[in-house]
Design brief:
Layout lengths: L3 E5 L15 H15 L4 E5 L4 H6 L1 H10 L6 E4 L2 E5 L5 H8 L10
Length: 108
């Protein structure tokens, strides 16, 4: 099983789903991750505001941020390698990486 880690930009809360103007993309990725967790898949998500040291300690993320800056966030690692940056993985990508059928969810 692939190890998936998402390194979010600094957000007000762990999922970014707070306040009155909720970003639909944050809602989608939160639902995808929750759905995968219910299937026993572990997707780790880090928030720069709450866990800055994790970004420093992860050599891959640290080097990527040194090279591309904070605009590279969010960064998704799959098995320790950068799979996608500057955007969240699509539902299709998450399905392919985990082997879990997410076709019932919005396609993006």
């Amino acid at each position: 099983m692939k190890k998936i880690e998402i390194f979010d930009p600094a957000m007000c809360c762990p999922t970014g789903l707070c306040g009155t103007n909720i970003d639909p993309e944050l809602m989608r990725i939160a639902v995808v991750i929750e759905t995968l967790k219910k299937q026993g898949i572990i997707v780790t998500r880090h928030n720069l505001r709450d866990e800055p040291q994790v970004y420093v300690n992860n050599k891959t993320v640290n080097e990527y941020l040194q090279k591309y800056g904070a605009d590279a966030l969010p960064i998704t690692l799959v098995d320790g390698e950068v799979a996608i940056s500057q955007t969240y993985p699509t539902t299709k990508q998450m399905s392919e990486w985990t082997g879990i059928n997410l076709n019932f969810m919005p396609v993006k």
